[in-house]
Write a structure and sequence with these properties.
Shape of chain B: rod-shaped
Strand order of the largest sheet of chain B: 1-2-3-5-4
Number of helices of chain B: 10
Order of helices and strands of chain B: HEEEEEHEHEHEHHEHEHHHEEE
Distance between the termini of chain B: 196 Å
Number of helices of chain A: 2
CATH topology of the largest domain in chain B: Rossmann fold
CATH superfamily of the largest domain in chain B: Response regulator
Number of strands of chain B: 13
Low-confidence stretches of chain B: none
Mean pLDDT of chain B: 91
Shape of chain A: elongated
Oligomer: heterodimer
Radius of gyration of chain B: 54 Å
Number of domains of chain A: 1
Helix content of chain B: 40-55%
Strand content of chain A: 5-15%
CATH class of the largest domain in chain B: Alpha Beta
């Protein structure tokens, strides 16, 4: 899945997994710096997505009056 | 007989009256007090609506009766006036709504008891709403203030969603049918919404009576898509609220329930990243402690070796001192230099002096 096609929920899940890495047994100090930078970048991406996203409102043309 | 009027058969007269009624009054709404309410064969419903001077007969099937009726209730009934060839004049009812606080309350209580008995409002039936919906179906009047509030708050809080709106009336006799059809439409869409929201702003009991319609309440309960109902103000409770998976106090509250605020998520994202730092500091602290402990152990080892050397050197020095001839002479001993044979000169070295002497005799011990 490309970065652009990821939803905010996908990115949030990715961020949660990154944060969890720092708490689990795989944690290694040698990789921590790079992982932290990746998490900080992802957090910024999410903030950007959140501030830019807009909803589309479609009003149905269909009438719901009794036919 | 010569008359000025039309001469008709009974059947023709009935047909003519119905034709005239269809043309002049295809649909009427009549308000009055229910009397003589009865259900026959569990199928047919008959009652009268009366006021101080008149009474009109109504007829229909139990399937069309969407609010419980009893004598004395004041209701507004929508229907078609008909002249039956067998039963005379009556209005075939299509929709009924209680009118006035007392009747609405009574109708509400009767239907509440019936549907509660059926388990329609059971907590076990409630489904959770999606955490982050991407497609929302909204049923409301697009002219209503509650709708505008809902859309504004929804857009302020979140974005990236598709909001499909079914415009319906949200009060009056037409409302339950229109809202029910909109619900069915959403449930049958190929791209079904993640959640259906039914909203209407505040109003008096008459305005909100549509949301106590049995057909609508059942349609909400039967929806395969989770439902959120935000009707009226916080103090208003309708049966539609009770049948929904989630109830919102107002349309604005519905938007708040539906999506988180971007602000909250941004704060959460920042907190998550900030939460990593103490973990890293802790890990670095642990490493630092380990390194310090290793250095301390190395220091101790070096000191121990050094002490051992010092002790050994001291011991060796003591031995050397003990072997020093000067120290032996100091203890009163003497060293004899020269050949040990009779007549030979010898020197006897003591600590403080050297004596020259001659060997007079040598004998075995």
């Amino acid at each position: 899945m490309s970065e652009k096609s990821k939803t905010i929920e996908d990115k949030m899940n990715e961020l949660r997994a990154m944060v969890a890495w720092f708490e689990n047994d795989d944690f290694a100090i040698e990789q921590a710096g790079a992982k932290f930078e990746a998490a900080a970048k992802l957090a910024k991406d999410i903030e950007k997505d959140l501030s830019e996203m807009k909803s589309t409102v479609n009003v149905l043309k269909k009438s719901f009056e009794e036919s | 007989m010569e008359t000025a009027g039309l001469r008709l058969s009974v059947s023709d007269f009935v047909a003519l009256v119905n034709q005239t009624l269809d043309y002049a009054f295809p649909i009427v709404v009549i308000e009055g007090e229910v009397s003589g309410f009865r259900v026959s064969q569990n199928k047919w419903v008959r009652f009268k609506l009366k006021d101080e001077q008149s009474a009109v007969e109504f007829f229909g099937s139990v399937y069309q009766l969407k609010v419980p009726l009893e004598d004395g209730m004041v209701v507004a009934v929508q229907g078609r006036p008909r002249l039956s060839d067998k039963y005379g004049f009556s209005v075939s009812f299509q929709a009924i709504q209680p009118v006035g606080e007392g009747s609405i309350k009574r109708g509400f209580e009767l239907l509440l008891a019936k549907l509660t008995e059926e388990g329609l409002f059971d907590e076990a039936r409630k489904r959770p709403l999606p955490e982050l919906p991407t497609h929302i179906g909204v049923i409301s009047s697009t002219q209503a203030a509650g709708y505008a509030d809902f859309i504004k708050i929804l857009n302020d809080r979140w974005g990236g969603m598709t909001v499909t709106v079914a415009h319906t009336v949200v009060q009056g006799l037409q409302a339950p049918g229109q809202i029910t059809r909109a619900l069915e439409h959403f449930n049958q869409m190929s791209d079904v919404p993640d959640v259906i929201v039914i909203i209407r702003g505040g109003g008096d009991a008459d305005d909100l009576a549509a949301f106590n319609d049995e057909g609508l309440v059942r349609a909400i309960a039967a929806s395969r898509i989770p439902t959120l109902v935000g009707v009226g103000h916080e103090v208003d409770t309708t049966l539609a609220d009770l049948a929904a998976d989630v109830r919102a106090a107002t349309p604005s509250n519905a938007a708040q329930i539906l999506v988180p605020h971007k602000r909250e998520l941004i704060a959460d994202v920042r907190a998550q990243v900030a939460g990593i730092l103490p973990r890293m500091e802790y890990a670095i602290g642990q490493l630092d402690q380990e390194v310090r402990a290793l250095i301390d152990r190395a220091d101790e080892k070096i000191e121990q070796v050094f002490e051992n050397y010092k002790l050994e050197v001291k011991s060796l020095a003591r031995l050397i001192q003990q072997s020093n001839p000067a120290n032996i002479l100091k203890r009163g001993y003497a060293i004899v230099h020269g050949q040990v044979k009779q007549g030979s000169p010898i020197e006897i070295e003591r600590f403080e002096d050297i004596i020259t002497a001659e060997v007079q005799n040598v004998r075995k011990k």
